[in-house]
Every structure is written in structure tokens, then in C-alpha cells.
Amino acid sequence: MIGGIGMRGNPEIFKKRVERFQELLRKNEIDGAVIRTLSSFIYFTGTKWLRPSLLIPSEGEPVVFVVKEEAELFRERSWIENVVEYQRVEDLMGGVVGWIHRNGMERVGLEFGVERDAYLLFLKLFQRLNPTVEVVDVLDLTMGLRMIKDDWELENIRKAGEIARKGMSVAEDVIKPGLSELEIAAEVMRELMLLGSEEPKVYVSTTPRVHAEPFRDLKVPENGVVTVVIGTDWNHYHANIARTFTVGEPGGRVREAMDVKKEAYELALRETKVGVVLNTVERKLASFFRERGFGDAYIAGYTHSVGLLIEELPMPTIVVPTRAEKVRENMVLSIVHSPLMIPEGAIKHEDTYIVKKDGLEKVT
């Protein structure tokens, strides 16, 4: 063990995940999968690694490719023993091609997602190097497993939620007229990282923007709103929280929007329960906002899942077909994700919840 560094979590958790995935591969007559997206790589290996390459056959042991001199540390942080080093990217691609052909694979799975390393360029290269191999999208298989959290995942998400709450308290304390979005984000980011969040996200908006990477030249007005969105992680699992703060006297429309948003939040909590279709809740919220005079301000998509990504499937805000997904026990959902977009700003009130049989457990 290098400097006392070890794997986070029980290796058996990750071995069982691979075994369940292999069962799904066999059921779908897929010979193996090449996992390149970072979050699924973490899900199966137990560790984060830049430019990941994980090869999972439908039967047998998985293989990981890492850059030369990385193998020793990788083995300390993962349960996978078959780790191959490479010096050139050509060696990596040759290793993947060789693995496919040595095992006589005809159908190979890749994840067609929007995440880093799920590049179209990689797909085209893969197809050129493996012209006789049928490429199959396995995103539904990986996300189907990841959608329902186990106890260890929920523990990590709860810890991430504690960090997120403390970060939002810092935001509330530091916001004042004249401070830039970037200055606010920096104060919050510092707190999150000191508390152990390795990949925090902080969005700050003083203008109507849904997700606002903070600008150094946009400042808190004397009378207005500031919306802060925080994503935190613990052992790579995330929690998500958002709040809108008023500064001075921003006007009656802002107060009305905040009241309506809070009512919608309570409505969503009442309606989100095991067995309910997400789109059923979505339609009720849309109707509520129309009745209250904010129909044109509501951005559709009231929730998304939270886990190894701050936003993952089901993701009704972006991937419309997932609005047909049913709420299930041990899903982790962010509610209400979508803001009310009014001229004064983006009005948000969002928390992370664990779905239980008897209700929702608030994480943030």
C-alpha cells in the first residue's frame, strides 16, 4: 500500500456490480463492453482515473489500461488485478483491438452518453479498427444498474449533502452588494474543498441564467437576487442544492416568484413517491405554474437523478424520454431542479432526496 492509500469501499461491492453487468451483457447477447466514461469506470472499479479504459467481457475478469508507471497506484485504489500499462495511445487502441479479437467478440458495447470520454471521435476510431464488430449502446444497462443506490452509495450521498449544506451557509454569509459572482463562488468552493469535496461545482448567477458559470465582471446589485447552485461529492458520489437569495428590495414580482416556487417545491415533494411516473408530476407542476401566472417562466423538467454525476439518468430536464421513468425506492432525486426564469433572475429552490417506501429522505 502506497503511503497508506487504499481502496474506498468494500471490493465485494464493485465485484458484484461487474457480475450483474455481465449477466445483462449475456442476456442481451453482447460479448463484452469497453467502458470509457469516467462515472461508469468509477462505478465498476471503485476509483477515479483520468482517461479511463475498462474492458469487461461477458464472462471472465475485467481488464484496465493505464499509462506507464500508473499501475501500482491503480491497484492500490481498485479491486481489479489485471492492469495493463501503455506508453502510446496506439498501444492502448491495439490492446483494445487485441482483447476483442482474442476473445472472438462479435458484439461489443459502448456507452453513448454526453459525458467526458464518450466521444464521437472514439466511436469512429473504434469502428475503423474493428470493422467486423457490431457496436451496441449499453448506456441503458449501466444506468439501469446505477439508478438504484445501495447502502454504501447512500452513505456517501448523505455525507456529500452535509458538505453541500455547509457550503450554502457560506454563500448566504458572504453575499453582499458589489461582490462578483466569481468572488462568491471562490469562497464557497474553498469551504467545500476543505470539507473534503474533491470535485465541487458552484454556479452563481446575478442575472437570469439557468446554470451560471460565475463571471468576474457580474456583481451583486443593490436590489436584486443571487442564485447559488452547489454540487458536492464524497467518495465520488454527489449531492445537489440550490437557493435564491434576495438583496435589498428586489421588488414584489421576485417575492411572488419565490413564494410560488416554494409552493411548487412542496407540491413536488407530495407527489414524488414510489410508483409514480415522473411526467405525471411534471404535468401537475406545469399546470400549477400556469394557474399562478408563471407558466411562461417555468423551464420543463422538475427533477433528475443524482449519483456519480450531479445530473444522471433519469434526466427529464435534458433527456425527454426519461420522463416516462417511474419513481423507485433508493433512487436519489434532485427536486425541484428547474428554475422560474424572470427578468430579475433565475428563481431556484432545490434539494437532494433519497426515495424511500414511506416517503422522501432529505439529504441537503
Quick structural summary:
With about 375 residues, the chain is α+β, with helices and mostly antiparallel strands.
Explained architecture:
The chain has 2 domains: 11-146, Creatine Amidinohydrolase, Chain A, domain 1 (3-Layer(aba) Sandwich); 151-362, Alpha-Beta Complex (Creatine Amidinohydrolase). α7 packs across α8 and α9 packs antiparallel against α10 (278-291). It starts with 10 loop residues before the first helix and ends with a strand. A hairpin with a 5-residue loop joins β2 (54-57) and β3. The mean pLDDT is 92. Helix content is 37%, strand content 21%. The protein has 10 helices and 15 strands. The protein has 364 residues and is α+β, with helices and mostly antiparallel strands. The protein is globular. Strands 7, 8, 9, 10, 11, 14 and 15 form a 7-stranded antiparallel beta sheet that branches. Pfam families: Creatinase_N, Peptidase_M24. It comes from Thermococcus gammatolerans (strain DSM 15229 / JCM 11827 / EJ3). Residues 155-356 form the Peptidase M24 domain. This is X-pro dipeptidase related protein (PepQ).
